[in-house]
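User: Please fill in residues for this 131-position structure.
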């Protein structure tokens, strides 16, 4: 996925805010069973995560501030996106989401933990290679 000129000109703060907006919109898309919309938002989320990763010093650590966001999908996205940065904190967030029994995010978090524990999922395997 190529980096958009608009995204490269955004500040880290703007990228984090957009990342949170995407999570809220994904939650709404899930509730409305709008798979195509969810998938489009997912691609934008990955582009933001990639942009943050590729900036000097790997700026994804700023996503950890979203662990306290009121929306469960935002927290899930932040945990999945920061696993390579801080496995302990990201895992604790995923475990809390799974234990919440608030579906579908609880199920997604549980599956993410299972895939990590089984060695199926590796940090950053969902992102394009670094340039």
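Assistant: Residues filled in for all 131 positions:
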């Amino acid at each position: 996925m190529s980096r958009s000129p608009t995204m490269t000109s955004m500040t880290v703060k703007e990228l984090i805010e957009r990342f949170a907006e995407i999570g809220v919109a994904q939650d709404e898309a899930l509730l409305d069973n709008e798979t195509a919309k969810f998938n489009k938002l997912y691609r934008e989320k990955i582009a933001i995560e990639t942009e943050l990763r590729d900036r000097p010093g790997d700026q994804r650590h700023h996503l950890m501030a979203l662990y306290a966001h009121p929306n469960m999908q935002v927290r899930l996205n932040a945990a999945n996106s920061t696993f390579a940065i801080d496995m302990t904190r990201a895992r604790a967030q995923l475990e809390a989401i799974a234990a919440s029994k608030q579906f579908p995010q609880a199920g997604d978090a549980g599956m993410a933990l299972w895939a990590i524990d089984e060695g199926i999922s590796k940090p950053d395997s969902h992102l394009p290679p670094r340039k």
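For context: DSSP finds six helices and no strands in the chain.
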